[in-house]
Amino acid sequence: MFKILVSDPISRDGLEPLLEADNIEIVQKKASEEEDLTQYDALFVRSATKVTAELMNQMPNLKIIARAGVGVDNIDVEQATRKGIIVINAPDGNTISTAEHTFAMIASLVRHIPQANMSVKNREWKRTAFVGSELYGKTLGIVGLGRIGTELAGRAKAFGMRVAVFDPFLTKERSEKIGVEKHSLDELLSSADIITVHTPLTKETKGILNHETIGRTKEGVYLVNCARGGIIDEEALCTYLENGHVRGVALDVFEVEPPEHTRLLEFEQVIATPHLGASTKEAQLNVAYQVSQEVLLFVQGKQVTTSINLPAMSEEAYRKVAPYDGLAQRIGTFLSQLMNEPIRSIEVEYEGSAAEIETSYVTKSLIASFLKQRMDININTVNAGVLARERGIQFIEKVSDRHSGYSSSMTVTINGEHSSSEIKGTFIPHFGERIISINGFSIDFHPSGHLLFVQHTDVPGVIGNVGKILGDHAVNIATMQVGRKEKGGEAIMMLSFDKPLEETTLSSLKGLEEIVTIKAIEL
Ligand SMILES: NC(=O)c1ccc[n+]([C@@H]2O[C@H](COP(=O)([O-])OP(=O)(O)OC[C@H]3O[C@@H](n4cnc5c(N)ncnc54)[C@H](O)[C@@H]3O)[C@@H](O)[C@H]2O)c1
Ligand SMILES: O=C(O)[C@H](O)COP(=O)(O)O
C-alpha cells in the first residue's frame, strides 16, 4: 500500500487520479498532528506546511514530496535531494488565478476600493477622500517576467498601460514578442508608476526592493507583492509609507505568515489579502490534479515530468532513455563489484544514438547503481550527483561522434586510487543490454544473473583448469564467453551460473597461477 499524507488543504476533486487507483491510501491531516509519520511514502503540501530536514527525518519512508502550487521555498529541497526524495510541483496550474489576483490588487490600490468599501460599511459617504488614478497611460513595472508576469503584462496592455520589465533572464526577442519594454532595474525603478514583483524568493531577489532601491522610485509610486514575502523589504516599506514617498502598497504575501507582528497592517494605504493568489476553485483543481497525475506515474514506476530535483523529461524522452538506463544500472553494479578500492572519478561516454538521449539522467542512474553497492543509504537518480560530489568522486560525461561499429554505445571508465576499469555496453532491440568490451577485451554477453569475471594469461589449458575446478565443486556453467587482445597476452572469460558461486569454489579458482583477476559478480 502506497500511503500519502495530505498536510495542507488540497482539492479533493484534484486528487481523483489517486483516489481511483488501487493500493493507494490518502490521509488528510496536518503533518504536525500525525503521530506516526513513518508510514508515509508521499507528502502533499501547499505553502503552509514547512517541509524541514527535521520533518523529513521523521518520515524515513518518504519518497516523493508534492507541492500543489509553484513556490517550493517552504521545502528544504537540498535536504530532500540529499535524501533521494523527489520534489515535484505544479508549475502553471495557478498562473492565471495569481495574475488575475495581482491585477485585482492593482486596480483596488489605485481606486482605493478596500478603503472605500470599509468607509461605506461604516455608514460614511466620503466621495472626495477616495479619488483615485487611472491605469490607462501609466507604466507598470514588472520585476520577473515568468508565467505570472507574462499573463499580467497582457492584462495591463489591455488596460492601455505601458509595461516595463526587469528580468535578467529575459531575451530581447521574447520581450518584443510579448510587447513589453526590457529595462535595467534602475530604468524600471525611475520610470514605473506601479511596480509589481513576480520572481521566486532567492538570495538574489530577497529584498530586491529595499531602502536603497525604493529610494530610486518615482515619488507617489505604488508597490505590489503577490509573489513571496521578503522580495520587498517590509521595514523599508514602512519607512517610505511614513514619509509619503510610496503612495500605496498591495500585499498578498508576507515575510512571516500570518503577519501577526508587522507594522505594515497599521497603514491605511496598505491593502492586504491572506496569500490568496492561487485560491480559486480552478487553480486548486489544476494544481492538485497536476501533482496527483505525477505521483500516480511515480507509483506506477514511470518517470515524473515536473520534478524540481530531477532532469525534466517527457514520457516520450523517457521511452528513449529507458534501455540505456537499464544498461547503465547493470554496468554501474558490475563495475562497483569489480573494483574494490576508493574511487576518484567516473567517466561516461555516449556514442551514436545513445548520444541523442537525456544522458544526464542515465549518468546519474549509473552513479547511483555504482554507489549503492558501497553505501547503506537510499541512493537514486535524485541524490547520486550530490553524494558522489560529497565523497570527492568527480563525474565526467562526454558525448562522442565516433562510431565503433555499433549504432549506439556507452563506455564507462572508473578511475580508482590504484587502477582503472572500463566497460563498453550497448542496447540491441530484441537482444537487450549487451556488454561488448571489458578493459579493452572484446566480448559479448547479457549482463545479468550470477557471473564470474576472469582475467588470465593466454596460455593453453586455462579454460580446462577453470572448468575442472567448477566441475569438482558441482557448479554447472550456464554460459561462457572468452576474449583476448593478442595471442599469448592476456585474455578474459565471462561465465554465468544458475546460482551464486560459493566462497570455497572461488578460493580454489584463485589458486590457479594463470589467473590475474577473478571476481564473482551478482547482477
Ligand atoms: N500569491 C500566490 O498565491 C502565488 C501563486 C503562484 C505563484 N506565486 C509566486 O510567484 C512567483 C512567480 O511565479 P511564476 O509561476 O511566474 O514563476 P516563473 O518561474 O515562471 O517566473 C519567475 C521569473 O522570475 C525571473 N527572475 C528570477 N530571478 C530574478 C531576478 N533576480 N530578478 C528579476 N527576475 C528574476 C525569472 O527569470 C522568471 O522569468 C513564484 O515563485 C511563487 O513564489 C505566488
Ligand atoms: O507558490 C504558489 O503556488 C502560491 O504561493 C500558492 O500557495 P498556496 O498553495 O499556499 O496557496
UniProtKB/TrEMBL annotation:
Q: What is its EC number?
A: 1.1.1.95
Q: Which reaction equations make up its catalytic activity?
A: (2R)-3-phosphoglycerate + NAD(+) = 3-phosphooxypyruvate + NADH + H(+); (R)-2-hydroxyglutarate + NAD(+) = 2-oxoglutarate + NADH + H(+)
GO biological process terms on file: L-serine biosynthetic process
Q: In what pathway does it function?
A: Amino-acid biosynthesis; L-serine biosynthesis; L-serine from 3-phospho-D-glycerate: step 1/3
Q: Does the keyword Ribosomal protein apply?
A: no
Tell me the GO molecular function terms: NAD binding; phosphoglycerate dehydrogenase activity
Q: Where is the ACT domain?
A: 451-523
Keywords from the named record: Amino-acid biosynthesis, NAD, Oxidoreductase, Serine biosynthesis
Q: What class of enzyme is it?
A: oxidoreductase
Family note: Belongs to the D-isomer specific 2-hydroxyacid dehydrogenase family.
Role, per record: Catalyzes the reversible oxidation of 3-phospho-D-glycerate to 3-phosphonooxypyruvate, the first step of the phosphorylated L-serine biosynthesis pathway. Also catalyzes the reversible oxidation of 2-hydroxyglutarate to 2-oxoglutarate.
What's the protein here called?
Answer: D-3-phosphoglycerate dehydrogenase
